[in-house]
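go over this chain:
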Amino acid sequence: MAQPLDVAHHRGENLLAITWADGSRSELPIPYLRGWCPCAQCQGHGDVVRFHEPPAEVTAVGLHEMGAYALGIRFSDGHDAGIYSWTWLRQLAPESPPLGRKSGLFRAGRFEPA
């Protein structure tokens, strides 16, 4: 499982920066994370997770750890149902294959490009 060493919310840049135990660093824009919210309200109850265009100018207004396995994010649009596991955040990271921001979908945890 992916393990973070440090998690920082850079409000001015509207992104989440994570330094991982393997030494890599991820910079995840908050709107990008909102668009990939894995909750059932956003994704339904199947095994497919798709990107949904987030509201304009969405920001994070609260972050909290959920046990040792995930991060909860409260967004400026009021949404806070997503549980962002460290593994999920690592999969979304631009430096994870395929390189760059992901577009397409994840089916049963495997990425399928658009």
In short: The chain is about 15% helix and 40% strand. The longest helix spans residues 86-92.
